[in-house]
Write a structure and sequence with these properties.
The chain contains 1 helix and 16 strands. By secondary structure, it is mostly beta strands. The longest helix has 16 residues, at 2-17. The radius of gyration is 17 Å and the shape is flat.
């Protein structure tokens, strides 16, 4: 029964995303482990993806890949309510402002990768809720392109153990903004590079 529900959700989402020159909206409430999701939104005026994982229980060993290209604003939010060894990949490029968020990160061994390029402002945020403990999560962010565009990120890993964060911002002609609040013991490796 669960599989049938997921197929129905993806069928409806595909129809919404296939309309040319229209807003794209994909909303997924995800259940279960060992799933792979690939969402591509191209050549539309607006892109929006919201994925809520762990609707019933924590989610483990799943992969979420989001590709947003073309014109218009690009927004993607994924809520990770609990789970281990999940991979989340955001790729946003082209014209328009880019925003990617991990909301309520709870769990261990999760890998989050954000690549934002092209014109427009770039923003990504990774945040955990309620001072939850996060162990061994890895966050990698690259923000490039967009002469005159702002680049901003915020990482809040309260109660992290062994977390790794690497962020690189390139081609800024205006001041970039960065915020990292990481309370960990022991800490992993952290780097912030601005070119």
């Amino acid at each position: 029964m669960r599989l049938l529900v997921l197929i129905l959700v993806f069928s409806i989402s595909w129809v919404q995303c296939s309309r040319a020159n229209a807003d794209n909206t994909v909303i997924i409430d995800q259940i279960g482990d060992n799933n792979t999701y690939t969402i591509e939104q191209k050549d539309a005026d607006g892109h929006y993806v919201r994925v809520k994982t762990g609707v019933v229980s924590s989610v483990d060993y799943s992969t979420f890949s989001i590709l947003q290209q073309g014109t218009g604003a690009k927004n993607a939010d994924i809520e990770v309510k609990g789970g281990i060894n999940n991979a989340v990949n955001f790729t946003q490029d082209g014209a328009g402002n880019h925003k990617a968020s991990i909301i309520g990160l709870i769990g261990s061994g999760n890998n989050i990768t954000v690549n934002q390029s092209g014109t427009g402002n770039h923003e990504f945020k990774v945040d955990n809720w309620n001072s939850s403990v996060n162990n061994g999560n890895t966050i990698t962010g690259t923000q490039s392109g967009g002469a005159g565009a702002d680049k901003w990120f915020a990482v809040n890993l309260n109660g992290a153990t062994g977390a790794t964060v690497n962020v690189q911002q390139t081609n800024p002609t205006t001041p970039s903004q960065a915020s990292m609040l990481i309370q960990c013991n022991p800490c992993g490796a952290y780097s912030y590079i601005r070119n």
